[in-house]
Amino acid sequence: MDEEYDVIVLGTGLKECILSGLLSVDGLKVLHMDRNDYYGGESTSLNLIQLWKRFKGNDKPSEHLGSSKEYNVDMVPKFMMANGALVRVLIHTSVTKYLNFKAVDGSFVYNKGKIYKVPATDVEALKSTLMGLFEKRRARKFFIYVQDYAEDDPKSHEGLDLHKVTTKEVISYIQIHWHAFKEVLHIYPLYGLGELPQGFARLSAVYGGTYMLNKPECKVEFDADGKAYGVTSEGETAKCKKVVCDPSYLPDKGKYIAFVSTEAETDHPEMELKPGIDLLGPVDETFFDIYDRYEPTNNHEHDNCFISASYDATTHFESTVQDVISMYRKITGKEPDLTVDLSAASAATEDA
């Protein structure tokens, strides 16, 4: 480990693994370390044995729950928007070849004690009890407009000048969802979100990145000017020009906010979650945890440390990828090119 690297990345969360992959593709010499013996950090997927070890110490899961390997419990459950920034990064880097995805069947809302499916087609709009008669008609008209819309067919624009209408981007955005992904708005990795950081870790390894798991006490070393120059673990120090890490490796650099599944609004987050938990019906085991949320306050130009923000309470990965892009921009001084043909990618998947 006593070598010098361009970048040392601490933590194998999704953000850190995406950056590790992108930087390795750029030709930088990357060392990636994690104190845990698994990938993913706070965004990992745990089997039952790992889940019990994390939350219940030495206790073992009950046999009636089945095999431990049959479970992949996501610690930071988030949907992936089918036309979102994360999908573009996956396609751009070809990490999709390491992953399998499942379409999320629909979105649902809880209203007055009942669960309703959010309408996604003109037929569902007419059947939905969430809307009144006039709202149904407007929704149906909108869905049909989106279905029939074609960029190169002015007749489908219904007289709207798309160069002046401010909702052009919104309509185009939904249009891509509708046609390229056949009404699928969200997708999910088949074997849990922990597959995402592992996929980018493979990308980094293919381009020469070095990975070390189960490395305790990863200590960032600073020189007299306060700039990071390396990381020490188990008596060895790896030197580097820049350090990238999640907040847990430099806790004094961040800002603390507690949240559970959504950002906590009271001093009793358990009670905030109770209505949602009650909807699940009978549950064999319940785990409750509060994640620390940090925002970096350091100046990377002064200390050469590039720290990711903690995962927020949103239900998708858009803010996660935006944080990655921002960090990539600061590290390399350039913008990542994420231009992809989503329609071509979708067709290629179907042919496969």
Question: What report would you give on this structure?
Answer:
This protein is α/β, with parallel strands linked by helices. It has three domains: 4-76 and 193-252 and 300-351, FAD/NAD(P)-binding domain, CATH 3.50.50; 108-183, Guanine Nucleotide Dissociation Inhibitor, domain 1; 257-293, no CATH class. The chain has eleven helices and 17 strands. Strands 1, 2, 10, 11, 12, 13 and 17 form a seven-stranded mixed β-sheet that branches. Helix 1 (14-25) crosses helix 10 (318-332). The longest helix is centred in the middle third of the chain and has 16 residues, at 133-148. It starts with a strand and ends with a helix. The model is unreliable at 168-183 and 254-260 (pLDDT under 50). One of its GO terms (molecular function) is Rab GDP-dissociation inhibitor activity. Pfam families: GDI. InterPro entries: FAD/NAD-bd_sf, GDP_dissociation_inhibitor, RabGDI. This is Guanosine nucleotide diphosphate dissociation inhibitor.
How is this fold's topology laid out?
Blueprint: E1 4-10, H1 14-25, E2 30-33, E3 45-46, H2 48-56, E4 73-74, E5 80-81, H3 85-93, E6 101-103, E7 108-111, E8 114-117, H4 122-127, H5 133-148, H6 168-180, E9 186-189, H7 195-206, E10 210-212, E11 219-222, E12 228-233, E13 236-245, E14 257-260, E15 262-263, H8 269-278, E16 291-293, H9 300-303, E17 305-307, H10 318-332, H11 342-351
Parallel strand pairs: 1-2, 1-13, 2-10, 13-17
Antiparallel strand pairs: 3-4, 5-9, 6-9, 7-8, 11-12, 12-13, 14-15, 14-16
Helix pairs in contact: 1-7, 1-10
Short description:
One of its GO terms (cellular component) is cytoplasm. It comes from Musa balbisiana. The protein contains eleven helices and 17 strands.
